[in-house]
Design brief:
14 helices; alpha/beta; four-stranded antiparallel β-sheet; about 15% strand; pyridoxal phosphate; Aspartate Aminotransferase, domain 2; Aspartate Aminotransferase, domain 1; seven-stranded mixed β-sheet; 17 strands; Arc Repressor Mutant, subunit A
Length: about 475
């Protein structure tokens, strides 16, 4: 028998196995046909008997042939595999585009990431003396990191909570999934509208009836859900995303009082950018005001350090913590122990606080620059008082938004339409956008806004 053995780096028996398998699949060797004896094939292709044996045994193990005592190896009947033509022309660039001037809402200042310090703590995290670091890790997360976060929350947000109530995870989305598993099956879920949850399908894709809550100058309105007994409300009180509203103290009290009137009412407070408030005094968190354990607090290191760290956390009320401990004690943590240990050391050493203070100064300079540049363009105004890394703006009705967006794309400039975060996309807010600037340099902000100013001029409706 002739075998076309491929010239690759495989072992010889694998080459023979592949050649025979190809003949069987292609029908060159038919079902029930007998393969040449091991000794005869060995002579035909001038290889050892043991090599042929290994190839035949591999074919037998995978079910292509079967051995009959004192007779030899016979090809088994194998149904043809149905192959449907589902090929699509896929180009990664169709889905992922890199913008020269990305005023998107994610990202951080990559130039000022504490590379050397984090490298030091990452290296120290891999320590032969700490053999437990190789385990799958606690279902709650690395204990020293939870303790460090507990200390930080007390200092930065006046949240006095035990580290045992803190759960580490890889993302806010995963934390929200855990919360849904902890609440009862009858629980409903309500979200700010517009809000982050309606722009990130992960939050609502498995909810039959997510409830959109309208916003006003004081924050989220809860009159629509005043009579619901089993419900969880997702809010961003410190700096509402994407409108930039700060929830008033009166609305905070209303929300907390509402939650206290039923044991199955909970509030998720996503404190996503509380560290970067550029004007005025820090606003008290809902969790620090929570006297009845109704607030589930979400925090993240994505904007504080880098999105790629994939470290978020939540603070669970005691009642939900007990349920979590009972039901999820066998759960593996989704964040590497090495990374958690390195971050714990980074916080405990005081380097984390230094980094936050340094980034506040860096971001404040960018903030002042972008506010000034927007002030130079008559056709752009802020929706709310600018005060954060994310700025909501409105484009004047004299501008053709379609042309404006098209020219932005051509000039490799990205800004995010606010309508993306609406519950009902039919109610268009075409002239409203949100700007981020953390990942841009001051030079890029200057250049980007010079181009935007020119695009605004070219997009005027009355332009001849």
């Amino acid at each position: 028998m002739y075998l076309n053995l491929k010239n690759d780096e495989s072992f010889l028996y694998e080459k023979i196995y592949k050649a025979l398998k190809e003949k069987i699949i292609n029908g060159d060797i038919m079902a029930y046909d007998k393969l040449p004896s091991i000794r005869n094939l060995s002579k035909d292709i001038n290889v050892s008997v043991n090599t042929i044996k290994k190839a035949y045994y591999k074919l037998e193990e995978e079910g292509y042939v079967e051995a009959e005592d004192k007779s030899g190896f016979y090809v088994k009947k194998i149904d043809d595999l149905i192959v449907l033509d589902k090929r699509e022309n896929f180009k990664e660039s169709d889905y992922i585009k890199v913008y020269k001037y990305d005023f998107g809402i994610s990202g951080v200042d990559y130039e000022n990431f504490p590379y050397k310090i984090m490298q030091k703590y990452m290296k120290e995290a891999i320590d032969k003396k700490d053999i437990k670091i190789l385990d799958k890790g606690s279902f709650k997360g690395y204990k020293p990191l939870r303790a460090a976060i507990s200390t930080y929350l007390k200092s930065a947000r006046n949240i006095d909570i035990s580290y045992s109530n803190i759960i580490i995870s890889s993302s806010t989305e995963h934390l929200f999934t855990l919360v849904k598993m902890l609440l009862n099956d009858q629980s409903l879920y309500a979200f700010e509208n517009p809000g982050y949850a309606f722009g990130n399908k992960f939050f609502t894709f498995d909810l039959e009836n997510p409830i959109p809550l309208d916003m006003d100058k004081d924050g989220v309105r809860i009159d629509k859900i005043s009579d619901f007994k089993s419900i969880c409300v997702f809010v961003t009180p410190f700096h509402q995303f994407p409108m930039g509203t700060v929830m008033s103290i009166q609305r905070r009290v209303e929300l907390l009082n509402w939650a206290s009137k039923s044991e199955n009412r909970y509030i998720i407070e996503d404190d996503y950018d509380c560290e970067f408030k550029f004007r005025g005094f820090p606003i008290e968190s809902l969790k620090s005001m929570d006297k009845n354990s109704d607030v589930i607090y979400f925090g993240s290191f994505s904007k504080l350090l880098a999105p790629s760290l994939r470290i978020s956390y939540m603070v669970l009320p005691d009642k939900l913590l007990k349920k979590y401990e009972e039901n999820f004690k066998d759960l593996s943590n989704t964040v590497s122990n090495f990374l958690q240990k390195a971050l714990a050391s980074f916080i405990e050493s005081g380097e984390f606080e230094k980094h936050i203070n340094r980034m506040k100064n860096i971001y404040y300079k960018k903030f002042e620059l972008i506010v000034r540049k927007i002030g130079e363009i008559n056709e752009i105004k802020f929706i709310s008082k600018p005060n954060s890394l994310i700025l909501p703006i409105e484009i004047d009705e004299s501008v053709d938004i379609g042309k404006f967006m098209s020219l932005l794309e051509k000039n490799s400039i990205r800004i995010i339409p606010l309508s993306r975060f609406l519950f009902n996309k039919k109610f268009s807010l075409d002239c409203f956008f949100i700007l981020g600037f953390a990942n841009l340099s001051e030079k890029e902000i200057m250049e980007g806004f010079e181009i935007i100013k020119d695009i605004i001029s070219k997009s005027k409706k009355n332009r001849t």
